Structure formats: C-alpha cells, structure tokens
Amino acid sequence: MQLNNIQTLRATLVCETGLHIGGGDTALQIGGIDSAVVRHPLTQQPYIPGSSLKGKLRSLLEWRAGVVGDTEGKVLSHQVYQQLIDDKKQAQALQALKILQLFGVSGGDKLSAEQAQQIGPTRLSFWDCEFDEHWLAQQGGRVQTEEKAENCIDRISGVALHPRFIERVPAGSRFDFRLTVRQLDGDSPDLLDTLLAGLKMLELDGLGGSISRGYGKVRFEALTLDGKDLQPRFEQLQPFKHTTQGAG
C-alpha cells in the first residue's frame, strides 16, 4: 500500500437560507439568544466546523447505502461491513467499504492486518470553513447574524407558545470549502464519485440544525479538484442512481 497523491477539493459553499450550527457553550442571558452559532475563538466570526461537514456527509452516505438499520443508528463499523458480506448483501457491502475507506473506522474496530490493508488510512481530511475573504471584504469585514424566533402553535387557540430565539448566519453568506483526498495505489475511481454524491445530497438535504424548518439549505459553486473544474460533472450528478445499478 502506497500513498500516491493528496488532492485538494475546493468550492464556495453558499447559504441559500439561514444556517445554524450551534456553539453549545454560550451563556444564556435574559432577553438574549437561546441558541447561538459556533464562532471562531480568535476572530469571533461564525464558521462551519469540518467535523459538522464530515458527520453530515457520512450520515447521508450511510442512509443511501441502506446500512443504518444494520448499525442500529451508530456509526458504520467494520464489524457491520463484515456482517453485510456474510449475509451476501453485496451492493450494500460495496457502499459500506467505500464509506469506511473515505471516512475511516472507529477506534473500537479491531482489524486484522488483512482487514486494515483493505480499508487503509482515512482518505478524507476536512477543513473548517471560514467566510470567503473577498465576499467578507464586501461586507465590511464583519457579518451580522440574524435572530430567528421559533415557537410551537397551540392547535386549539392558535397562539404561539414558548418562543425561542435562534441565531443564524444569513442567507447569501459565502464560505471557503476545502478538503483533501489521499490517493493510494489500487483505490477505485468510485471513491470520488461517492464523495461527490455525498456533497450533492448535502445540497438536497441541508446542513446544521432545523433543516425541516427551512434552515441550512446550501449549494456548492466553483467546485475544483487540484484546479480541475468539476462543477459541470457535479451539477449533472444523480446521487441515487446507484440504488438500481449497485455502483456509486
């Protein structure tokens, strides 16, 4: 097993609706925001953690592969992959293998030397996404977040109950998206197809919290791999085509 290359996938991630990825460590104040967005500790600007992107992409791909029932809602493991092979679920096993190769196995997976050789090291490395510097300059160097009131409606009286104020990065915000892809000898070209399918599903689904309420709709622009334009290929991608063909 040999590392042949490390490629860089870049794009501009555009918020089509307000985005909320919670910080989780902000003290509540009377009359203040109930749920704040995560902010960079140095600049205090909102950003998108690479861990949020990785977790959402992996989750979508596991749902697409049809393995969430086998994992009982947990992260896909090599043990589940092996069980798919034993149960002769070849199409699901193939998708599971690609996911493990792209995103890695957990520390709890005890692999033999042969199994470790098959999976190899994690191919993807996600970067935190900060605001596009050119767009940020047009905003005067700072981005003003918005407060969105959320509540539930009493079905009989029609009165709004228990209002909460959610902080969001506003629609139209633009982030620099970047990840690196390790290329090992013997890697299937389908790994890139699987990654792009995950990004396309992210556009169709959403990122962050309250997606069902309309938050977190995003799109990717100017997608490149080592400077090569992938946008036309990405725009024509049909991420669920594999379900009938058994290929990613």
UniProtKB/TrEMBL annotation:
A GO MF annotation of the entry reads: hydrolase activity
Q: Which family does it belong to?
A: Belongs to the CRISPR-associated Csm3 family.
What keywords are assigned to this protein? Antiviral defense, Endonuclease, Hydrolase, Nuclease, RNA-binding
Domain named CRISPR type III-associated protein: residues: 12-219
- UniProt organism field: Serratia sp. (strain ATCC 39006)
At the top level, the lineage of the source is Bacteria
Q: What is this protein called?
A: CRISPR system Cms endoribonuclease Csm3
- What's the short name of a Pfam family annotated to this entry? RAMPs
Provide the GO biological process annotations.
Answer: defense response to virus
InterPro entries attached to this UniProt entry: CRISPR-assoc_RAMP_Csm3, CRISPR_Csm3_endoribonuclease, RAMP_III_fam
